[in-house]
UniProtKB/TrEMBL annotation:
Pfam families: PD40. Coiled coil: none annotated. The keyword Cell membrane does not apply. Keywords: Signal. InterPro entries: 6-blade_b-propeller_TolB-like, WD40. Gene3D superfamilies: TolB, C-terminal domain (2.120.10.30). The lineage of its organism: Bacteria, Bacillati, Chloroflexota, Chloroflexia, Herpetosiphonales. This is WD40 repeat domain-containing protein. Belongs to the TolB family. The keyword S-adenosyl-L-methionine does not apply.
């Protein structure tokens, strides 16, 4: 292995970092089915395309393939911002007094987000706001155990837009059609006598993503006080399947293949976790290294693969030798990885890449060009066209869905 850096905020990162919020009061979650209290009857929020997808404002030029969302620091706190296809026209989607904690966009264009410890639903332009789950008030000075128990995190839509998985006292699912809220897996209580006096929980659960067919949820399992793994939950049986990579936590970019046949795990940052690219079999949990970026020269860090129609992949790939200056994150080049594993650079330049959002058509990617959580976003085409700086600094990028597509 090359070198390892210290672990910082890994645990909270697995299910969503905690922050001080001042939400409204609601009973605490239990391991049983929880009765939801939506602000309007469940029948009024059945997802439909006509009701939820909003048209884009007119723009003068086309740079991006679709409008883009990101969370961004604003004068009134962290909010969801929308950037139109010209790469310049900005709209604030939320105006939450205490900011937005996390969000996710459905295939029908609706946005679910966490603010004031509530799970909130809006349409693609931030209108028709509804509180779906009213979380408990958390004192800003609350201790870690209260945060673990009471904080809502990581909303993740099902592929059909009918349900939202999220973390609150464990991994839960909210059904928009029925209004039912179900606990799939509770946080695990601490049984280690050496830690039980400090921490109430030993494992925290939250959703990472749904399988493309909606039958399985890939969950983050965060160990207390540090570490973790990935766990697959079959929704038909609730049976868990734990995933590791050679005994290590699978980190840091996770994405399903479009057909659900595999889960891709990539990591470009030298440090605590292995770098490279792994295929995970969702049926067995077995992992296979497609690019082992850590154990043989030249080392090859990889960030965020994207499958193309022919089965090849796009990815940001780097090349590092032991004689190179020590660094956590090496510059990466947008490349194509063929079916035979051949890596072909599609651009002559390289970028420092913090996170990646591929265009649905593979024409390019929006990147955070830094390991920092929030910097000016860039559009990197999958050809020799120039890199474009976007009029938005942010993180957690997601594509919008609009009527005019």
């Amino acid at each position: 292995m090359r070198y390892r850096r210290g672990l910082a905020c890994l645990l909270l990162g697995l299910v969503g970092c905690s922050s001080a919020t001042t939400p409204t009061s609601q009973p605490q979650p239990t391991t049983n089915v929880i009765a939801a209290e939506p602000t309007s009857p469940a029948a009024t929020i059945v997802p439909t395309v006509a009701a939820t997808i909003a048209p884009s404002p007119e723009v003068m030029s086309e740079l991006l393939p679709q409008p883009l969302y990101a969370i961004s620091s604003q004068p009134n706190g962290v909010q969801i911002m929308r950037l139109e296809t010209d790469g310049n026209t900005l709209t604030s989607i939320t105006n939450e007094p205490n900011g937005v904690f996390d969000y996710h966009v459905s295939t029908l264009g609706q946005i679910a987000y966490i603010a004031d410890n509530d799970l909130i639903l809006v349409d693609g332009l931030g209108q028709n706001r509804q509180i779906l789950v009213d979380g408990p008030t958390i004192d800003p000075q609350a201790d870690t155990n209260i945060m673990h128990r009471d904080q809502l995190n990581t909303p993740r839509w099902s592929p059909d837009g009918s349900s939202i998985a999220f973390s609150w006292g464990g991994l839960q699912i909210y059904n928009l059609i029925t209004g039912e809220q179900t606990m799939l897996q509770s946080h695990t209580s601490s049984r280690d006598s050496a830690l039980a006096d400090i921490y109430d929980y030993s494992v925290l659960y939250g959703p990472n993503s749904w399988s493309p067919d909606g039958t399985t949820i890939l969950a983050n399992a965060g160990f207390v006080p540090e570490g973790g793994n990935l766990v697959l939950f079959d929704l038909a049986t609730s049976e868990p399947l734990t995933i590791t990579i050679d005994g290590n936590y699978p980190c840091c970019h996770v994405a399903w293949e479009p057909d659900g046949s595999a889960i891709n795990v990539t990591n470009e940052a030298f440090g605590m976790f292995p770098t490279g690219w792994w295929h995970i079999n969702p049926s067995t949990g077995e992992s296979k290294a497609l690019i082992d970026g850590d154990n043989a020269e030249p080392f090859q860090p990889v960030s965020s693969v994207f499958m193309q129609p022919d089965g090849s992949h796009l990815a940001f790939v780097g090349t590092v030798n032991s004689s190179d200056p020590m660094q956590i994150s090496a510059p990466l080049t947008l490349s194509q990885v063929g079916l035979d594993g051949t890596i072909t650079a599609l651009r002559q330049d390289s970028q420092t890449v913090g996170s990646v959002l591929w265009s649905p058509d593979g024409s390019g990617a929006v990147i955070v060009p830094s390991m920092m959580a929030e910097t000016q976003l860039q559009w990197v085409p999958s050809n020799a066209s120039p890199v474009a700086n976007l009029a938005l600094s942010g993180a957690n990028m997601q594509w919008a869905t609009t009527l005019d597509q």
